[in-house]
Amino acid sequence: MNQFIAGLPKVELHLHIEGSLEPELMFALAERNQIAIPYRSPEEVRAAYQFHNLQSFLDIYYQGANVLIHEQDFYDLTWAYLLRCKADNVVHTEIFFDPQTHTERGIAFETVVHGIHRALEQGRTELGISSQLILCFLRHLDQDAAFRTLEQAMPHRDKIIGVGLDSSELGHPPEKFKDVFEKALEAGFLTVAHAGEEGPSQNIDNTLDLLGATRVDHGVRCVEDPALVARLIREQVPLTVCPLSNLKLKVFESMRDHNIVELLRKELCVTINSDDPAYFGGYMTDNFQAVADAHPMSREEIAQFTFNAIMASFISEEEKQRLTQLTRNYLESF
Ligand code: HPA
Ligand code: ZN
Question: Is the CB of 94 within 6 Å of ligand 1?
Answer without folding.
Answer: no
